[in-house]
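quick one, 242 residues, struct below
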Amino acid sequence: MQAIRQAKGKENGATPVRGVIDLRAYATGVAPTRDWLGGRATAAFADDATVVTAIAPVGKGQVSVLPADEFLIVLAGEIAFDTTRRAAVIKAGQSAVLPAGLAFGWSAAAGTVAVIVACPGAAAALPDLVPIDEAAPLLPSNPPLAELLVGPTPSCRNHSDYRSANGEFVCGTWDSTPYNRRAMLHPQVELMHFLEGAATFVDASGSVTFSKGDIIVRVRGAQCSWVSEVHVKKVYATHKPA
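---
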């Protein structure tokens, strides 16, 4: 497991829990840009497999070939995308996946800010934008490992809108009944957008609680627990090595 590489300081979204980053705080003050690929903020987290960053796009532009799978969530404003197969507008609070190999045009409303999770991957034969459907039916999914739980086993459900060709990058929605999971070393990077409920993360350094509307990333190498006392629903974008 690599050492955690993330931006330092509260102004970069750092929280009392090492490896848990408040992405709304991190993206505050990002510089406007007309360069979709080259104008992004210093990464909140980066390793060889995943980069978490922010962008404040201005005006409009064109990307001929996207070099990585990108999950995008809009924090403010909106972005209109035009691919060869669809037109879509992603508004504040909404998210989508732009797969590797995609060509697209974009235009951004004034004041737009977005967070992007980028994971290099093979291009699909016919890549296209994939909106994250927050209302999609959820199916039962595996709960946390029994040996990590303190108390009852929760009921968890999931819907995956996007899965990369190698299966390492997955984006969708998830929910769960309350549970308490002991601290564990996390091999994955996971962006979470809380749609309902709240969860507290705890490590040896401290604790932090996030709730509806918050957008965070728990990075690879973080070692923290999860405590939720109410039903939680979230949008997620996760990279986990195969």
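The CA atoms of residues 100 and 175 lie 28 Å apart.
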